[in-house]
């Protein structure tokens, strides 16, 4: 019954908070807050940037305030995914509602309104934990390397976090994947002492005293660090989940359009060199293999692309009922920087692990992962994800929610997921099945554990529709055949 | 004798029903066996289109399904034969694609989402089930024994001669055409027997379908007239024959002319003249028969002789004049090669270069037909015993098809149906004799009957048949053993010889598990994913259809081979020095060159082994520039090692095959495992091309054609400079990289 409580909590939560903030293009948030302290943690261990910003916010207005505005430069804003704001002191209370302040796309700064559940009294403080990730913001430098060379990524950001409010002190802590950092910006005059401070793979810029610095000031910083791993990017992921009540089956199919955003090859691909690299097990910037964990009990996996089965895959089913199976996908060729690889995989699951019937009603609750995807240390970023849940024919009153746990689930706020319900006609359907399509942009494999809960109504007679139709159809055919067979069309005299 | 329950089932009206039901069950089982024995490759590998030509048919079917019939009819394909393009809609036999398209749309109408690929893969097995059924019908027309039809159906279902062209995934014209061939012949026999316009028209209808499906329709076009001609010569003219032939010819010719690729061939091409001639002849004979009923015998005889001479003379002169003046096309080259097996090798190397156009080796007959091949003459002999019209057909078919099967490997396919018919006739008569003739009366009971009825001995049926249980048992059991061995042989051949997709190669790991070599698809998919959409790929024509189907990139030449000169151009580019080849590549906008190299793995079907055909075909067009002799050593050997001729070692094909191959081995240890020869210590140097991709086992190697040099040097100079430059630079350590900051 655990999903139900979570689901109910989510329902009530979203009912209470949903407002769309509209503003004209030259929107300026009122200066009602001050950032007393700001710590930004940037994690660069994966092929995309993960940031967690903790801000101690203080109300400097005379009235209690309930709307805090986050600000992003527009070039950054297009890359932000999985934005979530929580009370740092009580993360288990779930994320706050956030609304993008709709503004012209040409404007330099985008604002996101955070609705605090309780208005913040004057002079009092709250610690906001803001977490998000940035896609496509790491650039390979040099842009083209030799096949066996090390790959370096460069990350540029501003020493001062972009904020709508004045900030008293701030610092940025960067976690790098390796100690090999050939270039990084050293600041001077921003603070006393060496800046940045290095400790292993951690680089710390600041703390800076920025009480006097106007909001929106930037101080560019660039780091270039070794990342001899592929930068895996899915420009599109289409994910189909098909529910079959008759078969007791949940069929999943995923179609990937992958790209490696790492450094291109200076020369063309050399098989000799690649054989050598593989033989010595050296790290490489090419995608060699993707490990895809499957839920316990997953059966019949397949891995195909446009021209058939990819024979290099392997499936290790989870032996005990609780262990995950592992699908090891090896692309047909190593995917180097700038190369593409598109494929599809699919498998079947037992529906009873995902579907519950509400006692005494024709209502069903389906809980499925929003996103699965390969689990690799270098991470995967998804530019666009289209999830389509195909419910049985005749399912009505479809509603969906995403579940939030104690930490960021990696999904964008619900109002940023586009959804529509359309009929999907297949396998001798008469009306067509109810298909719920959800489209989200800028996701990453942080959202692997995010759950999607769908409720729908489905009666006994909906289930009997197809057998009755087919029986009637066959009877019609037989009757017609019998009637035609009885007609005498001979031209001889009777 | 009291009726046992079994007898009640086998006698009288119920017996007829039971036998009918049994027959249906047996036929269904045969069809199921026919389909399932063709699924080896699907089970062992996957549902995939095989070999070369099927990839084009598959691509065309996809085009048909996506764009509709109208645009398929008008399809001009600019992604093949670059820069010429191909009028695909008008130069193919659409029957196969249209059949799959219709099946696809029916299934879509029933909202059954079957992928078009699966329809294409499984079309051939499905048709083989139908062929078995058509075979049953055909053989039943030949014999009164019900077992003959069932035996023929079973033979047709599993004989390797037919399976070779109809395994799942072998999506070629023959897949559907053999069914149409057999069924058309059945309808023809039915028409001749009944003299019915309906059967004649049905024959024409299926003949039209056959024309739309396979170029082998010419076989029917000549066999039916020949049958009629022989019957006429035997003095067996009848109104039945007249009605069925004229109906078939008139409607069938009209139907065949609806296919754009055939068009006016039926009245202009020599291949079709026999049908026209016999059509004329049968009119004359009919007229003569008509006249004879009015004129006394003596005068008629004279009139007939005069008429025959005059008409024959006029027809012959007319044919010669029309042929010389060019109204009637002379015999096509492929046709000549049917009469003279050496013809193609001299005049049209491109036809001779195809392995399936080679003359058949004798063991192939036994390999493909097993016990049927020695039952075949017996069956034909039995047709002579009661020589009805349909038996004449079997004899003619048998003679013609045996000859053709001896000339060309792939025509084994047309021989197979008649072998099945003849063998079934022979075997069923053995079985009937030894199994059922035992119903002859028991001597003891018979003696008592004799006494009581007191009939004359001579009026009694003579005691024919084998009554000894031992001889019955021996013969029956040996037949059963033969049949079991036949089944085992067919299964073995199908599984081992005919079920490889040839796109995917399989080998065994040391521990016995299957290891799949998937280099073709690896390279084709790389091309598909990582080259521009309109990058032109040059390869030898064998791979044209596969590149078009799997890599989806424009090609220069493909398996259609309609333009010999264009193929020769590619052959010249492959067989010439780089300085000669590069301008050819530039002129044809070639971006990538693809070669197949088996030297690392020992894969013998590679381009170096096909290389001599490229040279020969190029020599056919440019005898001054490419000479086959230059590629053989002074002692006439074809070598790739140290003693290879300069022409060989400088050819683009040689360089592309062995480029960088040395670096896999220790110094001087490089070995080509196909040719079994050690390669020169110094590998070939390429200057106008650069290696773009090599598949895991080196089977496919793709080269990118370099752009013109920036400094205006020629490529060999630039490459030499580059090599020298690199050696110097290797000593210099690269300093730390400095980040560019704005």
UniProtKB/TrEMBL annotation, chain A:
Protein's UniProt keywords contain Signal: yes
Coiled coil: none
Keyword Transmembrane helix applies: yes
Pathway the protein contributes to: Protein modification; protein glycosylation
BP GO terms, sorted: protein N-linked glycosylation via asparagine
Signal peptide location: 1-23
GO CC annotations on file: oligosaccharyltransferase complex
Chain intervals for the UniProt region annotation (Disordered): 185-207
Compartment(s): Endoplasmic reticulum membrane
Assigned keywords, A-Z: Endoplasmic reticulum, Membrane, Signal, Transmembrane, Transmembrane helix
Function statement: Subunit of the oligosaccharyl transferase (OST) complex that catalyzes the initial transfer of a defined glycan (Glc(3)Man(9)GlcNAc(2) in eukaryotes) from the lipid carrier dolichol-pyrophosphate to an asparagine residue within an Asn-X-Ser/Thr consensus motif in nascent polypeptide chains, the first step in protein N-glycosylation. N-glycosylation occurs cotranslationally and the complex associates with the Sec61 complex at the channel-forming translocon complex that mediates protein translocation across the endoplasmic reticulum (ER). All subunits are required for a maximal enzyme activity.
Subunit structure of this chain's protein: Component of the oligosaccharyltransferase (OST) complex.
Protein name (Swiss-Prot/TrEMBL): Dolichyl-diphosphooligosaccharide--protein glycosyltransferase subunit 1
Organism per entry: Aspergillus avenaceus
Organism classification: Eukaryota, Fungi, Dikarya, Ascomycota, Pezizomycotina
UniProtKB/TrEMBL annotation, chain B:
A cellular-component GO term for this protein: oligosaccharyltransferase complex
UniProt cross-references to InterPro entries, sorted A to Z: Oligo_trans_STT3, STT3-PglB_core, STT3_N
UniProt catalytic activity: a di-trans,poly-cis-dolichyl diphosphooligosaccharide + L-asparaginyl-[protein] = N(4)-(oligosaccharide-(1->4)-N-acetyl-beta-D-glucosaminyl-(1->4)-N-acetyl-beta-D-glucosaminyl)-L-asparaginyl-[protein] + a di-trans,poly-cis-dolichyl diphosphate + H(+)
The UniProt record lists the keyword Transferase: yes
Highest rank taxon of the organism: Eukaryota
Subcellular location: Endoplasmic reticulum membrane
Location of the STT3/PglB/AglB core domain: 537-586
Annotated transmembrane regions: 21-43, 91-107, 119-138, 144-163, 175-191, 211-234, 246-267, 273-291, 303-329, 364-384, 391-409, 415-437, 469-488
Official protein name in the record: Dolichyl-diphosphooligosaccharide--protein glycosyltransferase subunit STT3
Lineage summary: Eukaryota, Fungi, Dikarya, Ascomycota, Pezizomycotina
């Amino acid at each position: 019954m655990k999903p139900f409580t979570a689901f109910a909590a989510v329902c009530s939560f979203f009912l209470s908070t949903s407002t769309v903030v509209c503003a004209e293009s030259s929107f300026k948030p009122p200066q009602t807050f001050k950032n007393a302290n700001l710590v930004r943690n940037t994690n660069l261990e994966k092929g995309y940037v993960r940031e967690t910003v903790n801000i101690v916010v203080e109300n400097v207005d005379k009235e209690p305030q309930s709307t805090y505005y986050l600000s992003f430069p527009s070039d950054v804003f297009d890359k932000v995914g999985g934005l979530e704001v929580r009370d740092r002191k009580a993360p288990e209370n779930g994320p706050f509602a956030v609304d993008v302040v709709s503004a012209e796309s040409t404007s330099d700064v985008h604002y996101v309104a955070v609705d605090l559940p309780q208005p913040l009294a004057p002079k009092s403080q709250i610690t906001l934990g803001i977490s998000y990730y940035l896609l496509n913001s790491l650039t390979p430098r040099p842009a083209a390397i030799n096949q066996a060379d090390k790959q370096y990524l460069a990350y540029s950001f501003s020493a001062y976090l972009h904020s709508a409010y004045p900030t008293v002190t701030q610092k940025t802590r960067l976690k790098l994947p390796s100690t090999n950092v050939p270039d990084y910006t050293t600041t001077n005059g921003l603070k006393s002492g060496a800046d940045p401070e290095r400790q292993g793979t951690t680089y710390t810029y600041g703390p800076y005293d920025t009480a006097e610095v106007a909001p929106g000031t930037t101080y560019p910083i660039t780091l270039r660090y070794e990342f001899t791993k592929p930068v895996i990017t899915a420009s599109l992921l289409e994910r189909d989940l098909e529910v079959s009540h008759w078969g007791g089956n949940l069929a999943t199919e995923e179609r990937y359009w992958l790209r490696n955003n790492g450094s291109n090859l200076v020369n063309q691909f050399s098989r000799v060199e690649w054989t050598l690299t593989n033989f010595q097990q050296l790290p490489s910037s090419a995608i060699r293999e993707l490990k895809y964990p499957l839920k316990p009990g997953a059966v019949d996996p397949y891995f195909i692309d446009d021209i058939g089965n990819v024979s290099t895959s392997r499936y290790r089913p989870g032996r005990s009922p609780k262990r995950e199976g592992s699908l090891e996908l090896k692309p047909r060729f190593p995917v180097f920087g700038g190369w593409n690889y598109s494929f599809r995989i699919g498998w079947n699951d037992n529906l009873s692990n995902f579907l519950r019937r509400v006692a005494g009603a024709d209502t069903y609750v389906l809980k499925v992962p929003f996103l699965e995807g390969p689990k690799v240390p270098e991470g995967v970023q998804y530019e666009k994800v289209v999830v389509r849940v195909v419910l049985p024919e005749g399912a009505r009153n479809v509603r969906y929610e995403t579940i939030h746990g104690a930490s960021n689930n990696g999904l964008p706020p619900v109002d940023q997921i586009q959804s529509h319900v359309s009929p999907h006609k297949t396998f001798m359907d008469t009306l067509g099945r109810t298909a719920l399509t959800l489209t989200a942009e800028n996701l990453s494999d942080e959202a692997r554990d995010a759950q999607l809960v769908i409720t729908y109504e489905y009666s006994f007679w909906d289930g009997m529709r197809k057998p009755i139709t087919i029986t009637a159809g066959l009877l019609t055919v037989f009757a017609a055949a019998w009637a035609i067979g009885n007609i005498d069309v001979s031209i001889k005299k009777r | 004798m009291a009726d046992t329950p079994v007898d009640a089932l086998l006698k009288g009206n119920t017996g007829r029903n039971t036998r009918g039901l049994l027959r249906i069950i047996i036929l269904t089982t045969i069809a199921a066996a026919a389909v399932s024995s063709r699924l080896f490759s699907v089970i062992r590998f996957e549902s995939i289109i095989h070999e070369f030509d099927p990839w084009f048919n598959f691509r065309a079917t996809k085009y048909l399904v996506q764009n509709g019939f109208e645009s398929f009819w008008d399809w001009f394909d600019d992604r093949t034969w670059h820069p010429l393009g191909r009028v695909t809609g008008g130069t193919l036999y659409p029957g196969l694609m249209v059949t799959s398209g219709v099946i696809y749309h029916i299934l879509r109408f029933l909202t059954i989402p079957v992928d078009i690929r699966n329809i294409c893969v499984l079309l051939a097995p499905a048709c083989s089930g139908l062929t078995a059924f058509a075979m049953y019908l055909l053989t039943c027309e030949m014999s009164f024994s019900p077992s003959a039809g069932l035996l023929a159906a079973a033979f047709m279902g599993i004989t390797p001669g037919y399976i070779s062209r109809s395994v799942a995934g072998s999506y070629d014209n023959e897949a559907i055409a053999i069914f149409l061939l057999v069924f058309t012949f059945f309808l023809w026999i039915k028409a001749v027997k009944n003299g019915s316009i309906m059967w004649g028209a049905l024959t024409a209808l299926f003949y039209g379908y056959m024309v739309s499906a396979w170029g082998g329709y010419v076989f029917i076009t000549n066999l039916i007239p020949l049958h009629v001609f022989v019957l006429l010569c035997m003095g067996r003219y009848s109104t039945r024959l007249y009605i069925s032939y004229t109906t078939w010819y008139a409607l069938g010719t009209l139907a065949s002319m609806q296919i754009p690729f055939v068009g006016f061939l039926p009245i202009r091409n020599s291949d079709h003249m026999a049908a026209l001639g016999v059509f004329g002849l049968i009119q004359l004979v009919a007229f003569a028969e008509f006249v004879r009923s009015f004129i006394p015998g003596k005068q008629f005889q004279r009139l007939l002789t005069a008429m025959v001479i005059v008409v024959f003379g006029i027809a012959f002169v007319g044919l010669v004049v029309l042929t010389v003046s060019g109204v009637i096309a002379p015999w096509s080259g492929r046709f000549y090669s049917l009469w003279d097996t050496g013809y193609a090798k001299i005049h049209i190397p491109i036809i001779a270069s195809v392995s399936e156009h080679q003359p058949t080796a004798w063991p192939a007959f036994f390999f493909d037909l097993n016990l049927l091949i020695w039952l075949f003459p017996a069956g034909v002999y039995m047709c002579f015993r009661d020589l009805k019209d349909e038996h004449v057909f079997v004899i003619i078919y048998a003679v013609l098809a045996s000859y053709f099967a001896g000339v060309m490997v792939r025509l084994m396919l047309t021989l197979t149906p008649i072998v099945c018919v003849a063998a079934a006739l022979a075997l069923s008569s053995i079985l009937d004799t030894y199994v059922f003739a035992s119903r002859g009366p028991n001597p003891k009971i018979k003696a008592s009957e004799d006494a009581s009825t007191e009939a004359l001995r001579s009026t009694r049926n003579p005691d024919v048949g084998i009554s000894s249980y031992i001889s019955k048992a021996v013969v029956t059991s040996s037949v059963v053993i033969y049949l079991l061995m036949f089944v085992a042989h067919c299964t073995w051949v199908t599984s081992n010889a005919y079920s490889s997709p040839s796109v995917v190669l399989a080998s065994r790991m040391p521990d016995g598990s299957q290891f799949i070599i998937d280099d073709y698809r690896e390279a084709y998919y790389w091309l598909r994913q990582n080259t521009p959409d309109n990058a032109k790929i040059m390869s030898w024509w064998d791979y044209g259809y596969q590149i078009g189907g799997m890599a989806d990139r424009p090609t220069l030449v493909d398996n259609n081979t309609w333009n010999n000169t264009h193929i020769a151009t590619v052959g010249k580019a492959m067989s010439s020095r780089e300085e000669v080849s590069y301008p050819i590549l530039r002129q044809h906008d070639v971006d990538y060159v693809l070669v197949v190299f088996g030297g690392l793995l020992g894969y013998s079907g590679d381009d170096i082994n096909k290389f001599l055909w490229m040279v020969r075909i190029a020599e056919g067009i440019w005898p001054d520039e490419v000479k086959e002799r230059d590629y053989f050593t002074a002692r006439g050997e074809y070598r790739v090692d140290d003693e290879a001729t300069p022409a060989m070692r400088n050819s683009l094909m040689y360089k592309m095959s062995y480029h960088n191959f040395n670096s896999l081995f220790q110094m001087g240890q490089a070995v080509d495992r196909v040719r079994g020869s050690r390669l020169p210590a110094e590998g070939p140097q390429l200057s106008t091309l650069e290696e773009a991709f090599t598949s895991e086992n080196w089977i496919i190697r793709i080269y990118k054609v370099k752009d013109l040099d920036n400094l205006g040097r020629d490529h060999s100079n630039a490459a030499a400079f580059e090599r020298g430059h690199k050696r110097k630079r290797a000593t210099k350590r690269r300093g730390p990289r400095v980040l560019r900051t704005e």
